[in-house]
Amino acid sequence: MSYTIKELSNELGISEKTCSRWIDDGLKTVAGSKKPILIMGSDAKDFLRSKDSKRKVELKRNEFYCFACKAPRRAKRGSIHQLKNKKTGLCHVCNGKMCRIFTPYQKDYQISLFPT
Description:
Blueprint: E1 2-4, H1 5-12, H2 16-25, E2 38-40, H3 41-55, E3 64-66, E4 71-73, E5 81-83, E6 86-90, E7 97-101, H4 106-113
């Protein structure tokens, strides 16, 4: 299915300017479409997947993502706080905020379901 810039922006909840920037950044348009510019839904999905995968950062077991450094870092001792599946802390390099979202291991689920 093809979308105009206006339809795509409404569907994704973004501005039309953002769609235009994405086209400048490499989002494919339907060949020969001048006004309105048409974008295939599959091309938009592929573009968004590749855009998101470029930003992902692999974290080691003891690392957090520092929002100030924009890199994986270790947290200061004593600064780590946990709330459900999210850990926050302070960066040992710049003292900035850090975050890590995790999923509990399957073994942890089994322990909580079947207490000994």
